[in-house]
Amino acid sequence: MQQKKYLNRELSWLQFNARVLQEAEDETVPLIERLRFLGIFSNNLDEFFKVRYATVKRIDLAGKAGKSVLGGIKASKLLEEITQIVIEHQSKSLQVLHDIQHQLKDYNIHIINEKQVSASQKKFIKNFFLSKVSPALVTIILNDLHELPSLKDSAAYLAVKMVMKEEKPQNAISKVLDKTEKEQKYVLIEIPRSIERFVVLPEENGNQYIILLDDLIRYNLGTIFNIFEYESISAHMIKITRDAELDIDSDLSKSFIEKISSSVKDRIKGEPVRFVYDMNIADDTLSYLMNKMGIESTDSIIPGGRYHNRRDYMNFPSLGREDLLYKAIEPLPIPGLILQTSLFGSIAKKDFLLYAPYQSFAYTVKFLREAALDPKVKTIKITIYRLAKISHIASSLINAVKNGKKVIVQIELRARFDEVANIRYAEQMQAEGVQLIFGVPGLKVHCKACVIEREEEGKTKRYGFISTGNFNESTSRIYTDYTLFTAHSEILKEVNKVFDFFEINYKVNKYKHLIVSPHYSRNTFVGLIQKEIENAREGKPSGIALKLNSLSDYPMIDKLYQASQAGVKIKLIVRGVCCLIPGVEKLSENIEVISIVDKFLEHPRVFIFKNAGNSKVYISSADWMRRNLDLRVEISCPIYDEDIKQEIIETFDISWHDNVKARMITSKQDNAYRNDSDNKHRSQFELYDYYFKKLPKNEFVKQ
């Protein structure tokens, strides 16, 4: 039997989400944090069905086996396997949720349902419903509709069944003749997204109580349907997930913003790809709903628990219980880079590296605010992929325009699930005079870079930064990312070339320093791996260390296999999808892979090549996936400053030696924790200590 060379991408992703579920299950994680990991698990799964499952389903419906792009599995078979795994994961997640809720009681926190409401809580719940919930309810009587209105993607609905009272027969004859079944009415109530899912009730005797909005609505069903004469009433939750692929309009008369806006709106008409329902719903109600909604057997139909949209647990209230949360860390300053002084003056002398959230994202905002005010700054160019809801980055750019600067923003309107927010910011910035670029036809712009031009002594000098992550104040608190601040003239000249490419797409620039997708990344990385192969064969120091979110490009995996066979030792830290199979004799026995899932989301991409003892180190926005190498604009930036180079190597090593939150990626796909030493190393905690120890004495007091 031929050795399997690749793991399927979709199945590998499901194993990544299983690692998130492990965090919810881990009893060493604070209880409320465990609930929030359950929310992340559920949110991830929603997005998986909207995108990846939907893509496989499209392949299947097109009549294609899809084996060449699905890792040797037929599309139809893969859909079945995904559904089975998801059912198992959902079942486990329900048990985890039950266990957490039971443990919360030990801390006097009670999540109650509509049947557990005490006499003293009734008034609060009634008033809350009448004042806040009732005006926001959308209630649809299904019996009288020939066609069901399009249900919102991933919104949660209560499917209500009313068994109506019989009208009393007028006489004995009509009583004998009336053998018809009792009338049933079916209703859908949309759970409002404008109201917090978890309603915190008044404390009683030192106990804290929470009722889910769903149950608060269930408690008030009698109020909602008081005009009906019913014998019994029941309500069970359902949810539908739709294909979220954007079909872009080709109408040349429309602006790009109009086309993306229209495509986002059309998502509500996307084909259903998953139907989740409360497993306790009556068979006749389930059958009625599936027929009414056109749910077919080819869709992923998943029985679940009483509550769906568990992604809302991401925002489970803190309740003032710091004892049940991770201790908040205070982001550290960067040694030698002082927020209260000019950053340009410091960056002109040397490069600086920011590693968020261990260090403060405020440096990025300060850089742009300083550029907006500095009379010597003439031009600011920046790429934007995802912004915070309230973005200081955007306000700084608008401020710069008001101060007479030329501001050029490449904004990616197709950043999945952030399209609406980016369109809003694009329109706002455009109205203020920011010059917008909407990317390159056929390519997403995913690189994260900024360059400013400043007049100094009659000459133009450039300053800038290149990052592995988004310029987003919100995610910077929970995503780990590197940002390099530099005044390196050659690097920034090449960043400027990337902006030229945005505007003049037919001209392919050459780069000596940056590695830029889609034109150069694949061949350059293949060349760097090949050099390690040659070094290994010649007995020179060799080795490759990569930190990625995803590794799914088969040609790149094959090149890593080739390096392994040549004796190159390869260390991979891959948070999510990993299609490479490590540790296979005569194929990948020199490759080890771990995945770290912990308090923060591991997000940086780092490439380290030993290079015969003179290491080459890059930070990047690009994973090793086909889309990042061939179908997006990405930047991988070399690190030339020896201190920063050493810092990145050391921080990689700290992550590599994690044996608390690191899972081993193997052909077994069992997410086994690495447990290779009695000395425990939890990398995210050790990284904070690493940066704290770098600070001069008395510069920062550790909380």
From TrEMBL:
Mg(2+) binds at R386, R416. GO terms for cellular component: polyphosphate kinase complex. Its EC number is 2.7.4.1. One of its GO terms (biological process) is polyphosphate biosynthetic process. InterPro entries: PP_kinase, PP_kinase_C_1, PP_kinase_middle, PP_kinase_middle_dom_sf, PPK_C_dom2, PPK_N_dom, PPK_N_dom_sf. ATP binds at N44, Y479, R575, H603. Residues 343-506, 514-684 form the Polyphosphate kinase C-terminal domain. Gene3D superfamilies: Endonuclease Chain A, Polyphosphate kinase middle domain, Polyphosphate kinase N-terminal domain. Keywords: ATP-binding, Kinase, Magnesium, Metal-binding, Nucleotide-binding, Phosphoprotein, Transferase. SUPFAM superfamilies: Phospholipase D/nuclease (SSF56024), PHP14-like (SSF143724), PPK N-terminal domain-like (SSF140356). Catalyzes the reversible transfer of the terminal phosphate of ATP to form a long-chain polyphosphate (polyP). This is Polyphosphate kinase. The lineage of its organism: Bacteria, Pseudomonadati, Bacteroidota, Flavobacteriia, Flavobacteriales.
